[in-house]
Amino acid sequence: MSGTRNPVSEAELHAWLDGELPDERLADVERHLADHPDDAQRFERYRGQRALLGQSFGPLIDQPLPDRLTPPFAMREPAAGPAAPRWGRGALWGLAVAASLLIFVSGGAGGWLLRDRMAGRAEPPTAAFIADAVAAHRVFSVEVRHPVEIGVDEEAHLVNWLSKRLGKTMRCPKVTRAGYQLIGGRLLADSVGPVALYMYEDAAGRRITLYIRPSPNTSGSAFRFAQDGGVRALYWQDNGLALAVTGELDRDTLSGVAEEVYGALNS
């Protein structure tokens, strides 16, 4: 997967994600991710999906995988030769949980949908949506020269452009109460379709992003919280849109920003 003298394998990338990569390979993997943005984005998505799974199945994910559920390939002794990165039991247990979710979805009930309807809540955005929002924040919030495609000085053009591309009447919500100013936005795309990304900055240069995608759900949902390392996100659905506010903020501050965005879009 890499053109370096010590190529990085898919197994090593997963070991890096699981925190099980040997120290001597860390620099090679990080170099590979820096040189291969597609892999970097893919594993950011995996990280976000795992974080969302952990919110609902954390106690299970932390338990060792029962032997009866351990895949046969993981029980075989490795062949003689150079040591290969191993799949940790925690990672395999995570795969088992993920597989069970896939079974629920393909079975017609819909694992996430069933879980939330049983609790009397609306269907939430998918794990992939949250992972994409976090990945977009990480990629663009650190940009110095080109953090946005269209700046706030062309706000009307930005709104009209995004409205046309998303097929929705878009607005640029203000979050001045939280101390952030809009600096502009850009058009992105995920596996579903076009996405709007707004970026805001405070006086200290800290940035937050608002990730918006059209959604078939018009009934709305409560705020949901997700976290991946130091990046936190609050996401919800409202008026045919799925939205996520993302930043390196504490949960209370992020909640205030999300409430201000919600109020601005519904005023």
Automatic annotation (TrEMBL):
The chain crosses the membrane at residues 91-114. Keywords: Membrane, Transmembrane, Transmembrane helix. This is Transcriptional regulator.
